[in-house]
Amino acid sequence: MQQTRQLAAIMFTDIVGYSGLMGRDEAGAMKLLDLSRKMQQNLVAVHNGRWIKELGDGVIIVFNSVLNAVNCAMDIQKQARRIESLSLKIAIHSGEILMTTNDVFGDSVNLTSRMEQLGEKDTIILSGTALSAINNIASIQTAYLGDFNLKNIQ
Question: Does the predicted TM-score (pTM) go above 0.85?
């Protein structure tokens, strides 16, 4: 299996409340999942991202730049607001990953996954590393949420 190490912006997305919706309306949940994936795939392509894999109702995506990841995340959230019942939470971190043909591994991937779990509906959470990469861009507004202890992350 071919493996390469590289710096990347890692993005995790997740549909908020999807499990509950699936329990109430399976057909509706599947339709929402399909709409969400199609919308996200289109925007990932526009922002030069690489769709790595789907994890249930979530997705792992990587970008060559934090700015591309953040712009993509903002566009995804904007489009999600136009789709009834779709609320997403998104996390972005920048760090070294181990990439194979169709997957990514490493501490940076694990950190991004843990960050996504902290998110609330309609939010984009950035790590300090990702934030420092876009901090001087006036068109992107951010708010400091504090420091967090994440399970199995040092």
Answer: yes
